[in-house]
Amino acid sequence: MLSCEQATRLTSERQERSLTLRENTELKMHLFICSGCREFGRQMDALRSLIRRQPGDKPPED
Amino acid sequence: MIPDSDIADLRRDMLAFARLQISDPHLAEDAVQEALAGALKNAAAFARKASLKTWVFAILRNKIADLLRSKYREPVTTTDPDCKHCAPADDQYFDDNGHWQQDTQPRSWGDTHWLADNADFWKVFDACLNDLPAEQARVFMMREFIELTGPEICATLELSSSNLHVLLHRARLRLRACLSGQWFGTEESA
């Protein structure tokens, strides 16, 4: 079973690369029982979408 | 019309942002100058200051990304298995078994969508980002704000991809802990 440290590492790397089938399975099993790591994942998604969806207008092509 | 004092403030913020990413001060200055000049040409269309700032920074971000991709690209010649750049791990988040400490376990932030427009939130965010070890802040900004890809960052900084992943993991752990403590108030320590 993954530790929370390993699970957060995989959650972070999921934003960088495709996880292997095995990594994915282990992460899902961990998240099933760990609310802290589920929350970590939600917060990572929230951070990325907040940063990348800044308010205002699209810049011109230049 | 935008007051000169606002432009000066904006310019200072842009330069600080560019300097973090581009070590050559002249190149950083040029990127800021070009972004600002390009934006101000059409400033009339941007009555709202906040909107102008967002827009100018988006242009600046594109310029920095181009600079980093072109002028700074070097072949990766070194790998660093011990990750000297990575700074010590933040062990305080996990116990000896690698599980969350009781007071560091993430708790819900609730709805976050409304924060995108909240200037106070971004101030706290900046403070938290500035609190990160320099290398962590740098790769996090390159990845999330400049939106370079992992391989582009690795090529620019001569990092291995596993080192990049370590740095990003630590940056994200620390940033979320700081935001939880300083903004969301969901955890005692940050």
Task: Please describe what this structure looks like.
In chain A, 66% of the residues lie in helices and 0% in strands. Chain A is an all-alpha fold and 62 residues long. Chain A has one domain (4-52). In chain A, α1 crosses α2, α1 runs parallel beside α3 (35-52) and α2 packs across α3 (35-52). Residues 55-62 of chain A have low confidence and may be disordered. Chain B has seven helices and no strands. Chain B has 190 residues and is an all-alpha fold. Chain B has helices spanning 4-21, 25-41, 49-70, 119-131, 134-144, 150-157, 161-184. Chain B has two domains: 4-70; 84-184, Arc Repressor Mutant, subunit A (Orthogonal Bundle), CATH 1.10.10. Chain B is 59% helix and 0% strand. In chain B, α1 packs across α2 (25-41), α1 packs parallel to α3 and α2 crosses α3. The model of chain B is unreliable at 74-78 (pLDDT under 50). The interface between A and B is large, with 34 and 39 residues.
Features:
heterodimer, A: 62 residues, mainly alpha, 66% helix, globular, disordered C terminus, B: 190 residues, Arc Repressor Mutant, subunit A, 7 helices, 0% strand
Count of domains of chain A: 1
Helicity range of chain A: 55-70%
Mean pLDDT of chain A, nearest integer? 88
Specify the biggest β-sheet of chain B. Answer: none
Question: Which class do the helix and strand fractions of chain A yield?
Answer: mainly alpha
Q: What's the total count of β strands of chain A?
A: 0
User: From the alpha-carbon coordinates, what is the Rg of chain A to the nearest angstrom?
Assistant: 15 Å
Shape of chain A: globular
| Percent helix of chain B | 55-70%
Succession of helices and strands of chain A: HHH
User: What's the number of structural domains of chain B?
Assistant: 2
Overall pLDDT of chain B: 81
Percent of residues in beta strands of chain A:
under 5%
Order of helices and strands of chain B: HHHHHHH
Q: Which parts of chain A are unreliable, with pLDDT below 50 for 5 consecutive residues or more?
A: 55-62
Structural class given helices, strands, pairing of chain B? Answer: mainly alpha
Q: Distance N terminus to C terminus of chain B? A: 42 Å
**What CATH first level of the largest domain in chain B would be assigned?**
Mainly Alpha
